[in-house]
């Protein structure tokens, strides 16, 4: 992996997307990749707080009552690696963190934030969508691939696409178009 074109500045916001207990349910979601994801997210949160930069937590509140992400489900709660109070908590029911409450874009603008570091769950859904919308809105987005994970998915033709492959596809989709693809280590040593 190549180093980012530049390191995130002192006001870069860490956007931690949907790190919720429901995603630990293997029977519901299937096989996942990147077992180091949560450890890397925890490292990023600690580093961001140590450097005094803004931390945003995003929580998915599904409108489907049978979803493990529905607010009435214990799976809606954050995983244990999500600690302390964020500078902002965004609650959403769609893929993009920019389409929740309160308005993430408005808050970032008020805070003078122009750079985002995206991490969380899942790589190819809410994390990728957040990075795409952030890029479209003009933010410099750093996508921390090793601080995301996803699950195997079935294609329309019935083929099972492994989670690792889906992660590589997301990185390819975002690279040099919507985001700079990076790693946890690159960010904390930059």
Automatic annotation (TrEMBL):
Keywords assigned: Hydrolase
Isochorismatase-like domain boundaries: 12-155
GO MF annotation: an example: hydrolase activity
InterPro entries: Isochorismatase-like_dom, Isochorismatase-like_hydrls, Isochorismatase-like_sf
Keyword Hydrolase: yes
UniProt name for this protein: Isochorismatase family protein
Species: Nesterenkonia alkaliphila
């Amino acid at each position: 992996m190549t180093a980012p074109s530049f390191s995130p500045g002192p006001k870069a916001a860490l956007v931690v997307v949907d790190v919720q207990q429901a995603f630990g349910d293997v029977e519901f979601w299937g096989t996942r990749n990147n077992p180091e994801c949560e450890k890397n997210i925890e490292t990023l949160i600690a580093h961001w707080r140590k450097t005094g930069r803004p931390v945003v937590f995003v929580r998915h509140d599904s409108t489907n009552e049978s979803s493990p992400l529905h607010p009435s489900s214990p799976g809606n709660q954050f995983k244990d690696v999500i600690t302390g109070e964020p500078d902002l908590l965004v609650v959403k029911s769609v893929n993009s963190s920019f389409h929740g409450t309160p308005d993430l874009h408005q808050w970032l603008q008020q805070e003078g934030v122009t750079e985002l570091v995206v991490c969380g769950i899942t790589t190819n859904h809410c994390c990728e969508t957040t990075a795409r919308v952030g890029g479209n809105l003009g933010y410099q987005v750093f996508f921390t691939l090793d601080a995301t994970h996803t699950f195997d998915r079935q294609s329309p033709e019935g083929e099972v696409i492994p989670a690792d492959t889906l992660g590589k596809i997301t990185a390819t989709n975002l690279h040099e178009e919507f985001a700079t693809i990076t790693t946890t280590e690159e960010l904390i040593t930059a």
